[in-house]
Amino acid sequence: MAISDFTIIRRSLTSRLFSTVMTALTVAVAVAMLLVLLSMKDAGEQAFSRGSGDMHLLVSKDSSPLVSVLNGIFYANAPAAPILRPEFDRVASDPRVAIAIPTQQGDSFAGLPVMATSAEFFTKFQPSQGRPWEFASGRAFEKPFEVVLGARAARETGLKIGDGIYLSHGRSNAAVRVTADDHADNHEEHAHEDHEEGAAEPAGHVHREFPYTIVGILKPSGSAHDTALFTDLTSAWTIHAHDRREREDPTAKTTPADITDEDRKITGIYVRAASRPGADASGAVGQLAYQLRQEGFTVAEPSKEIPKLFKIVGGINAILVAMAGVVLVSGSISIMIALYNSMEQRRRQIAVLRVLGASRGRIFGLVLTESALLGLLGALGGVVLGMLAGGLTAGALRGRLGIVVTPVYPPEWVLIVIVAAVLLASVAGLIPAVAAYRTSVARNLRPAA
Amino acid sequence: MGEALSITDLGFRYAAAGPWVVDIDALSLEAGEQLLLTGRSGRGKSTLLYLIAGLMEPGRGRVLVHGQDMHALRGHHRDEFRGRAVGMIFQTFNLLHGFSAAENVMLAMMFSDIPRAEHAKRAHDLLAHLGVDRPDAPPEQLSIGQQQRVAVARAVACRPALVLADEPTASLDPENAGGAMDLIQGACRDTGAALLCVSHDPTMAERFRRRASLDALGAETQR
Question: Are A101 and A60 in contact (CB under 8 A)?
């Protein structure tokens, strides 16, 4: 096969393979960083938007709408300020409200949050717009002390349909399961026990008086809800009624019949405003939010709060992207140094090529193309590396934070990053290319002394 | 047969007011003719070859290669012309590492008008003709004698009008030097190229019917 310019470039790169690989790797790492950051940025926004699903308003008594969203949708902390039952009834009965789903947080299992809610949570609320809940197995709760597991909660706890568990009050790492002995014992002998071991704040106590049964496991929704356990409000209120009654009589037995209005507290309301069939955005949302604020509620519009969240972290993103840019530039500089250093060894080769008929311009082009090719190799390696790193990062986010992020690599971004890397590498190749262009033939063909 | 080389009033010096390193009134070489140019070290023998090849600019004078004024050509036109019309052989061969013997020969054809499809066959045929038995081996794995043959093949690969040989035997022992010169002169005869060989080796004289000394200003040639 005849020799071409590309053959010369290829031989030049392979003749100093270590330097070529290391230089391309520098560019690859920079490109990978850039791609991961860009893909995560968009995917992160999508992931955070996912949890709020099709709700228009999140009503609570938290200190601010952002805190309300963090607590009510992302389970950052259990909301402390309660909403009383009459307040919920007032909101739910507003003619502008199509759906009002009460939620209550405060209990946990194995450090995972428990959300008490109504059955409508599974039938009328969609965690992602247009994607209703689906059960991987089992069903929604139908009576008190039944539990539905989010997908990640099921995976982390290893619980299956039919398993029995005890919940902890407050956030606790306690993961107490119902055993055969428990069934044989009288539950009253298991008055709730303090559980400090491994507890997250505040230290919780395990309600051994009330065994729960797993009845359903949800499919992944890609939202923070996947980390939660869901039970009905009557169960939560029964436990709270028990706490109240136990303070007065430590031997008290409590059933749902003992629940009073004082116990019927919730911590949030998912609200979907009434809208015309087929329409999503409702003109009533603004008015409704205004009125509810006037009534003393904290009203968050998740679609507005989540961008605020990203505005906060957006600055960090910009710094990270800038850092990746700096790494990319330093990668280009390393290309320049590698090529420039190789010039010392290649001057004789260049001189011979000139004797054989290569023009200065062609030599200049060879070195510049070599530099661009190094950039391209690095960029392509970076795309592969970036996708691997993106997958690992997404796995880590899912595993550690429960945030389901699917890294997205829009082709136009990938193309832009590749072109940017190649352009930067080409610019970096200018100095070595000029050095090659100016190589003296006569001086470099003389026999070494 | 036309002239392969015609030099008229050629002068070169490194500084404007410095001495002329190359100073030749006239020198010509017919097609297929072979000339030995002798002179002491530092007398400007290599510089003269680079001037003829258009790789250095003369202070004065004119160099015609195959009828073309080398220094009237600019940029890539001169380089392309050199690639077609001039072959060069060096004392240290200057074969490129990282390329096989055949590829070293094909590198010369890369800048010529020879169709690409013919490069490989031509290179292998030429190397076989010159006695290179391992055309696909890298030069550093070949003996000195075989490397010399590859260098000669590269110089005549494009059937140039003129071959310039710069001290081609300086790094060889007398026995190998004789063989190398047989090879160079034979290859030039086979391809019809004129040969201008510069050397300070006095034993070379008997090989050339025509000789010239650069020490004699004006390059008085002995025919």
Answer: no
Same-domain check for residues A23 and A97? no
Query: Is B98's CB within 8 Å of A3's CB?
Result: no
N- to C-terminal Cα separation, chain A: 36
**Predicted pLDDT of residue A368:** 93
Whether a cis peptide bond, with omega within 30° of 0, leads into B160 is: no
Domain count, chain A: 2
Q: What pLDDT is stored for residue A185 in this prediction?
A: 54
- Complex confidence, ipTM: 0.91
Interchain contact, A2 vs B110, CB within 8 Å: yes
All residues of chain B having their beta carbon less than 8 Å from the beta carbon of residue A366 are none
Find the residue in A nearest to B112 (Cα).
A357
Q: What are the pLDDT digits (tens) for A261-285?
A: 888 899 999 999 887 666 555 667 8
* A133 & A258 share domain: yes
Give the residue among A171, A167, A254 at the shortest CA–CA distance from A207. Answer: A167
B56, B79, B91: residue with CB nearest A442: B56
How many structural domains does chain B have? 1
CA A370 – CA A289 distance, rounded (Å): 62
Average pLDDT of the residues of chain B: 88
Residues A39 and A180 in one domain: no
A136, A26: one domain: no
Same domain, A99 and A116: yes
In this structure, the answer to whether residues A190 and A238 fall within a common structural domain is yes
The H-or-E segment that residue B76 falls in is: helix B75-85
Residue A237 shares a structural domain with residue A125: yes
| Closest chain A residue by Cα to residue B74 | A359
Residue A69 and residue A125 share a domain: yes
Q: Residue B90 belongs to what domain range?
A: 32-57+76-213
Q: Does some domain include residue B99? A: yes
How far does the CA of residue B109 sit from the closest CA of chain A (Å)?
8
Q: Does the residue A274 lie in any domain?
A: yes
Q: Report residue A388's pLDDT band, with 50, 70 and 90 as the boundaries.
A: very high
The last residue of one of the domains, among A250, A281, A300, is A300
Distance from CA of A2 to the nearest CA of B (A): 6
Mean pLDDT score of chain A, rounded to an integer?
A: 84
Whether residue A52 lies inside any domain: the answer is no
From A4, A442, A447, residue closest to B92, measured CB to CB: A447
Binary contact (B46, A441; C-beta < 8 A): no
Q: Residue B209's domain is classified under what CATH number?
A: 3.40.50.300
Residue A409 lies in a domain: yes
Domain coverage including residue A172: 57-300
For residue A339, give the nearest of A430, A435, A432 by alpha carbon. Answer: A432
pLDDT grade for A311, boundaries at 50, 70 and 90: confident
The interaxial angle of helices A5-15 and A360-396, nearest 10 deg, is: 60
Hey, which residues 34-63 in chain B have their CB within 8 Å of chain A? 46-47, 50, 53, 55-56
Q: Does A348 touch chain B (CB under 8 A)?
A: yes
- Residues A284 and B50: their CA atoms lie apart, in Å, by 88
Q: What is the pLDDT of residues A36-89, one digit of tens each?
A: 887 777 666 666 666 677 888 999 999 899 888 888 888 888 887 899 988 999
Q: How many CB pairs under 8 A join A and B?
A: 85
Residues 358-387 of A with CB under 8 A from B: 358-362
Are B82 and A11 a contacting pair at CB < 8 A? no
Report the C-alpha gap between A286 and A302 in whole angstroms: 13
A349 close to B (CB below 8 A): yes
Poorest-pLDDT segment among A124-128, A175-179, B13-17: A175-179
- A423 assigned to some structural domain: yes
